[in-house]
Amino acid sequence: MSGAALGLEIVFVFFLALFLLHRYGDFKKQHRLVIIATLLAWYLCFLIVFILPLDVSTTIYNRCKLAVNSSPAESNGSYVTLAPSRQKCFKPWSYIPNGIMPIFWRVVYWTSQFLTWILLPFMQSYARSGGFSITGKIKTALIENAIYYGTYLLIFGAFLIYVAVNPNFNLQWSQLQTIGIAAANTWGLFLLVLLLGYGLVEIPRSHWNGAKRGYLLMKTYFKAAKLMTEKADAEENLEDIMEEVRKVSESIKYNHPLRKCVDTILKKCPTEYQERMGRNMDDYEDFDERQNNYPSEKSLVKLHKQVIYSVQRHRRTQVQWQILLEQAFYLEDVAKNETSATRQFVHTFHSQEPENKIIQYLYTPTVEWYWECLLRPWFYRVLAVVLATFSVIVVWSECTFFSTKPVLSLFAVFIQLAEKTYNYIYIEMACFLTIFFLSICVYSTVFRIRVFNYYYLASHHQTDAYSLLFSGMLFCRLTPPLCLNFLGLTHMDATISHKNTQPTAYTSIMGSMRVLSFIADGFYIYYPMLVVILCIATYFSLGTRCLNLLGFQQFMGDSEMTSDLIDEGKELIRREKRKRQRQEEGENRRREWKERYGNRDDSTRNRTVHTDPKEPSFSETNTSRPLSKYTRSNGRTERDRIELLQDAEPLDFNADSINDDPLESDSGR
Questions:
Q1: Which of 446, 460, 443 is nearest to 327 (CA)?
Q2: Of the candidates 655, 196, 88, 221, which has an alpha carbon nearest to the alpha carbon of residue 442?
Q3: Close Cβ partners of 35 (under 8 Å, ≥ 6 residues apart)
Q4: How far apart are CA 629 and CA 126, in angstroms?
Q5: What positions belong to coiled-coil segments (predicted)?
Q6: How far apart are CA 179 and CA 519, in angstroms?
């Protein structure tokens, strides 16, 4: 049973990471190595979060066995009985045998560190490179990461020289390994507290505001105005880049040595631009080597990089605009249906995607009305209160977890109460809920933050390779200090509890932080208290107000700029709604016309087919005179024909419908 629990969690976490990556990444268009590296990074980080509660329960059982073996005891089946107090050490259902967890944590931890510090930064530069060959991309990635890797080597080399020269230090390999782990965890903890302080306040507040009537709709209008500006900017940028590509494609002919590079760039362009450039290109002219206005390979590499970025950005804004329109239309429908007397949810537009029949059967218009208009706001309010309670407990425990006598950390109190009764299911559930809530607060902030267009995780398969790899780096750097912080909150870390007890398998691979006492007794204990200041700043939206003052429009209810953007977004949504309504009305009229006169058209077509074969048809008359398109039998001169073409009304051209003489059009019809 113990191995089954570990195996089930490993499989479940893999499919969870695969599902999230499929939501944000694009398996069809992105490189396989990017998908595999990002999936591995996300999978390892999620795996640590899900497996750590099993490590805690196993450690508590091992402590009980050590306490029993140190006193007279007798064995009784699957548990050990302490003779004086008759205390029983039941084996947990998810018990993992000794020796498995240390190896497991060592493989997971060092693999994640290799990804975050070496492989993923290199793959980031490789993915953004505009090179036309694998060698060129690797060369570019090495050059861009030379400073990155050189800085770490310089710091590590200086530290080794200092240790070797100073006679007071006699460090061994295990201590050097611990120092490296402590340095990585210190960097991760610094970023962890910043993200945690934002998530502890913003997640409950977002759910509470989501229950307010009209709040989500106003915020959607605000997003529509901002997204339209970004969409127009992306279209303009794409037009400029495509104009440069057109000039390069016209200057470099088919027999130029760099023509293969140009063809590679053209393949990355949208289809409509490829067709337009293909029509305007004349490749039958040879290039002249004496001309010096040909672009260099370096400039083509830069242009290739710009094309990849502009096309990805343009595609992302187009998809996000359509998704935002659907969201706005649905929220407007919710606002209209709130006053419905029939209690039947009515949609303005039908869903373009076919819905599942089971969902249609269960999620009826009546059920949808009760959920969207009545139950959903209350559900969001209750959920916001629960999340806010968890946030208060986390903030209190972060400020008091260093106190062991008395124990002030609420998470440590819960675990110690369950440890006395050896209720392993309660221990694992409490540990899982705690670390899961901490992970949600941190990881959701990683998914929400946006650094201009440098880093942005967009759902519906619109995240670029660079952002996916960057998110994998952040996860691998944040997860180990997150787990250490969780173990400190529950007093399962001997460095915090100051008890000479068996440590968890996870803390055993981290080594003793006593090698760096100023980090173990100082930074790890007092720096998490900064989360209180960050929560207060987030509650009063100080960061949002600062960004708004700097010119980055943020959604603020008391801002005049926000009101203007809401009005602009409302007008944009109204315009798109009218356009969608006209399209549906046109489709409905064509459908009604086809249903009403479709049978009549079929019978007319059948009568035309069964006419007398001796009677020549109009098509036969035209095909019997193939040269009549280009010659005139009535002796008109070329000048007369040109004048007739100039005086004619510009109708749609159809070569088969041209007759010899305009006077014959009636008879031909």
A1: 460
A2: 196
A3: 21, 25, 27
A4: 58
A5: 224-251
A6: 10
Task: Indicate the domain borders of the chain.
Answer: 1-68+90-215+357-561
Q: What is the pLDDT of residue 660?
A: 41
* Three-state SS at 190: helix
Query: Are 238 and 311 in contact, with CB atoms under 8 Å apart?
Result: yes
Residue type, 105: W
pLDDT tens digit sequence for 261-310: 998 999 989 988 888 877 655 545 555 555 557 788 889 999 999 999 99
**How far apart are alpha carbons 278 and 281 in whole angstroms?**
5
Closest-CA residue to 502 (of 608, 419, 587, 575):
419
Q: Which residue has the tokens 């010096």?
A: 292
Whole-angstrom CA distances from 132 to 37, 80, 145, 309, 507 are 22, 67, 19, 15, 46
Residues near 71 by beta carbon (within 8 Å), at least 6 away in sequence? 82, 83, 84
Q: How many residues in total does the chain contain? A: 669
Give the span between the Cα atoms of 179 and 363, in whole angstroms.
57
Which amino acid would we find at residue 630?
Y
Q: What is the mean pLDDT of residues 406-428?
A: 89
CA 184 and chain centroid, separation: 25
Q: CA-to-CA distance for 177 and 182, rounded, in angstroms?
A: 9
Mean pLDDT of 489-516: 77
Does position 235 have pLDDT exceeding 90, yes or no? Answer: yes
Cis peptide before 406 (omega within 30 of 0): yes
For the stretch 168-198, pLDDT in tens is 666 677 777 777 788 888 888 899 999 999 9
Confidence of residue 378 (pLDDT cuts 50, 70, 90): very high
Smallest CA-to-CA distance from 295 within 350, 328, 246 is with 246
